[in-house]
Design brief:
The protein is an all-beta fold. It folds into two domains: about 10-65, no CATH class; about 70-155, no CATH class. It is about 0% helix and about 40% strand. The strands form three sheets. Strands 5-9-8-10-11 form a five-stranded mixed β-barrel. It has a four-stranded antiparallel β-sheet with strand order 1-4-3-2, with no helix packed on it. The two termini are about 30 Å apart.
């Protein structure tokens, strides 16, 4: 059988790139912002697909979201580990290899959508967004510590198909 490349995406240097148009109504944050994390809604909480907003078309209420598995973007990550009584109650340093979750808790600082907590402030499951990785060889870890903070981290997103 002859090898045939049927689609342009099959020759991407990263493998399969997935840049999907997503209606705002199908996103957890219905006011997406380019370069920010995004989460596509799902029937089962905690199983949503995450990605990074590339562009938005306000006239059509569509966002183009990179949901490619393995894409790395620089995002703000809250170092919260657990919530108690609806508020952050424990924090920890963020390190390479730590899992990062899309956290839509009402207690998150403005613009921050990712944390190290698998549960939100009301005990619901946060969806796995990705893993903290080195931005470059001189990136310094651990970041943050035992008090509340928001850190800039390179995050390899889980994306679609993981």
């Amino acid at each position: 059988m002859t090898e045939t490349i049927r689609h342009d995406y099959e020759v991407s240097s990263k493998g399969t790139e997935r840049h999907w148009p997503v209606p705002y109504a199908r996103m957890t944050d219905a006011t997406p912002t380019p370069t920010q994390p995004a989460e596509l809604t799902a029937v089962t909480p905690g199983t949503e697909i995450g990605g990074t907003v590339l562009t938005v078309d306000a006239a059509l209420s569509l966002a183009i979201v990179d949901v490619s598995c393995g894409s790395i973007y620089y995002h703000y990550v809250r170092n919260v580990r657990t919530y108690g009584g609806g508020v952050e109650s424990a924090w920890g340093a963020i390190n390479v290899g730590d899992r990062v979750y899309y956290d839509d808790s009402a207690t998150m600082p403005d613009g921050v959508k990712l944390s190290t907590s698998p549960l939100d402030n009301i005990g619901g499951a946060n969806s796995l967004f990705g893993t903290v990785v080195l931005r470059n060889p001189t990136d310094v870890f651990p970041k943050g510590g035992a008090t509340a903070s928001t850190q800039s981290c390179a995050v390899m997103q889980r994306g679609a198909g993981a």
